[in-house]
Amino acid sequence: MRMKGKSVINYNVYAPTNVICMLRPRRQDGQSIIQEGFKVNPSVEFSEYTDIYGNPCQRLVMPVGQVTITTEVEAQVNVTKPIPTPVPAYVMVGDLPDDVMHYILPSRYCQSDLPEINALAMQIAGNFKPGYDQVEEIRKWIHNNVTYQYGTSNANTTALDTARNRIGVCRDFTHLAIALCRNLSIPTRMTVGYLDKLQEMDLHAWFEVYIGDGWYAFDAVQEQTEGYRIEIAHGRDAADVAMITQFGNATLQSLHVEVELLDPDPASLPGQNAH
Q: What are the boundaries of each domain within the chain?
């Protein structure tokens, strides 16, 4: 499926402000980038580097005044990878690959080592088979017990806050899921990007867990994990995947996001049946 994503971000800048942007898509298995664009108005020079998680990052200095950053991507993507049958087996900590070990550790927004998080993880999933069954129970519990509502959390809200308040947005749903899964020694990371199935279009966050021999996506905002996605970045939590990190005096004024599927889904065409 060909899919397009576009983000338009407007800032008021009061003093020259250094920023790190994480807005260009990853190049990886499951998504092939057909074309993309990154534009800053007024035009400024920028440089690029790849962070420790393989995410493409852009560095620039926003000048004083109104600054607009526009990014566009068109990619060939697969539908969200389904969980195979039989489900992948839980991987014991001693058998995990070295490069996923940091995803079972607590992080800034995901305090997986706290007793309160442990109590909630055991309440939700303690009686289920380790691995996929536990992750899916956690995902469903968050979807059913945490209210999705804008303006109820901020950049300082943690998984523990969401466990207590049970309200937030996709970032908060994801942080709580990560903390609960890591508490059960399941490697879990935060992923951000575009999703076609959102009631209110925005850049989206979901979580991925390492089970069997690979990573699988889970989305606590959705009734069930589905849809087409373009991944921009992944990391331990929001501190690693912020769309813009600023070092100076600037205020975000607006964020406009568009997502479009360019090819019809055969299952949705007249006379077609999904198999």
A: 2-77+243-262, 93-227
pLDDT at 263: 76
Walking along the chain (275 residues) 10 residues at a time, the average pLDDT comes out as 96 98 94 96 96 97 98 94 87 96 98 98 96 97 97 95 97 98 98 87 92 94 94 97 95 94 59 34
Instruction: Please choose, from the candidates 162, 172, 79, 163, the residue with its C-alpha nearest in 3D space to the C-alpha of residue 124.
Output: 163
pTM: 0.92
CA distance 174 to 191: 9
CATH 3.10.620.30 assigned to domain 93-227? The reply is yes
CA-based R_g, the chain, Å:
19
Tell me the HSE value of 160 on the side-chain side, using a 13 A CA sphere: 14
In 104-117, which positions are buried (b, 16+ CB within 10 angstroms) versus exposed (e)? bebbebbbbebeeb
Residue 83: the pLDDT is: 85
CATH number of 2-77+243-262: 2.60.40.2250
> Is 206:144 a contact under the CB 8 Å cutoff?
no
* Cα–Cα separations (whole angstroms), residue 194 to 15, 135, 191, 205, 232: 31, 22, 10, 8, 8
pLDDT given for residue 264 in this prediction? 59
- Rounded Cα gap, residues 213 and 148, in angstroms: 32
